[in-house]
Amino acid sequence: MGKWWQEEVVYQIYPRSFQDSNGDGIGDIPGIISRLDEIKALGVGIIWLSPVYKSPDADNGYDISDYMDINPKFGTMADMERLFKEAKARGIRIIMDLVINHTSDEHKWFQESRDKDSPYRDYYIWRPGRMGGKLPPNNWTGFFMGSTWEYDEKSGEYYLHLFDKKQPDLNYHNPKVLNEVKEILRFWLDKGAAGFRCDVINVIYKTSLKDGKPAIAIRGLEHYKSQEGNHRILKELRKDVLSKYDCFTVGETVMVDLDEAKMLCEPEREELDMVFYFDHLEVDRRVARYVPKKFKAKKLLEVLAKWQRGLSWNAVYLENHDQPRIVSHYGDEGKYWARSAKMLATLLLTLKGTPYIYQGQEIGMTNFDYPDMSSLDDVESKNVYKLMRKLQIPAKTAWDWIRMSSRDNARTPMQWSQEEGAGFTTGTPWLPINGNYKEINYQDQHEVNGSVYRFYQRMIAFRAGNETLKYGEFVPLFGDDDTIVYAREGGGEHLVVALNFSPEQKEIPLEGEVLISNTGRSEYDGKLGPYESIVMRH
């Protein structure tokens, strides 16, 4: 038996797209409460809630103007307290999104800091410009493209923002900032939160503001990615706050490698409990996730093996609010849609670590079907598209790349039913609903044997009852362009998992008892069908 967060499966909710309760087209907290029984029935024990804090929504809630209040679009603090209570009554814990690299520029701290004499001035990173104020303080470029500096007329200086200009970075050279963060943590833990997903958590400390080395996309990384000061902050948060509660943390990490990840989450470090990395979703991408290359299953196995064997405990996921839908990415949206969605469920739930399922993944939701950029909301996609066009990438190619990789692919409203509004809203949805909601929805799947939903339910239950799947070692066995085979070993049990990522039948010699298959077969004949997955006891 491990810790409780090693035993459970996590379900991520992106609130504005999950369930609208009042017809305004935006998902909300009462909507989430109304669906807790459905979440419980899936078999998960933890909800990761994307930001519900007060925010002007320049980056869909990741620009926070008050960490201790709720965005009125989502409800009230009383609603949030009821969500904690109702979830607890069902045996479900909730972890919150912690966004502490930056605040909103509408946060009272930032508004105060615009005055050079304010005690909040040093909460942010303000600097005079170069060349008499005409040029930014350094040459850094940000994650949403362009300079990381914005000039403020009132201040007569520039402030740093690694992300959108409405997301000014906090200054962790000021100990008062860390004390404010500790109070935020305590506030939510005392409310009932069971931990935090920590946004871009390995870039919060800026060691230096010197010019960055030449880089294709992001200049300046070497001055703030995974710095020693960052580790000091995480250790202090663990020691002073997190260690006093029965909670866990998972960190979203920017461009992290295995050695950096170990420094962040190995148990003896006493920093984070686990981290999200991105390598396994980028085996068919060049440089950034927007530029594609050919998928090779063998490469995926190599990446999985590196992380599965390299870390004591993994955060295992295939989708989140920033990634395209996995069935559109590594599966098949057409003839083998259901089978490939189930194959990917097998992959997710047979890896070592805490599995994270993103809303809609359990019914095989696909990427959006929008015709052009006009339907998109995502600030990152818009900025990347502008950059592509500036680099003279043809409009059709740029759109094809955006359509394949935009964060809005995961943000289309949850498809609950065939009703108008997909059962998500009775109003006009904040982001267009995918046109395939009449074919792909929860209502049609949750009581149907053989559906994608029922397979996820079955795989979650299968994992819950199998100690080898939860804690056994990961052993890579075979990989080629289309197939991978690996074992999970522990406690005298040897399980073999085989996955076919192609529409062609493959000959894979395996022996053993079939425990679970996405095609329902009970015996194995040496051939793996199109997008078939199989788990065997050897």
First-last Cα distance: 24 Å
CATH names the topology of the domain at 473-537 as Immunoglobulin-like
Which structural class matches the secondary elements?
Answer: alpha/beta
CATH class group of the domain at 473-537: Mainly Beta
- Our count of helices gives 16
Q: How would you sum up the global shape? A: globular
Order of strands in the sheet with the most strands? 11-10-9-5-2-1-15-14
CATH architecture field of the domain at 473-537 = Sandwich
Uncertain spans: none
- Total DSSP E strands: 22
Mean pLDDT: 95
Q: What fraction of residues sit in β-strands? A: 15-25%
Helix percentage range: 25-40%
Please explain how this structure is put together.
The chain has 16 helices and 22 strands. The two termini are 24 Å apart. The chain is α/β, with parallel strands linked by helices and 538 residues long. The strands form six sheets. Strands 11-10-9-5-2-1-15-14 form an eight-stranded parallel sheet. The radius of gyration is 23 Å and the shape is globular. Helices cover 28% and strands 17% of the residues. InterPro entries: Beta_galactosidase_C, GH, GH13_cat_dom, Glyco_hydro_b, O16G_dom_2. This is Alpha-glucosidase. Belongs to the glycosyl hydrolase 13 family.
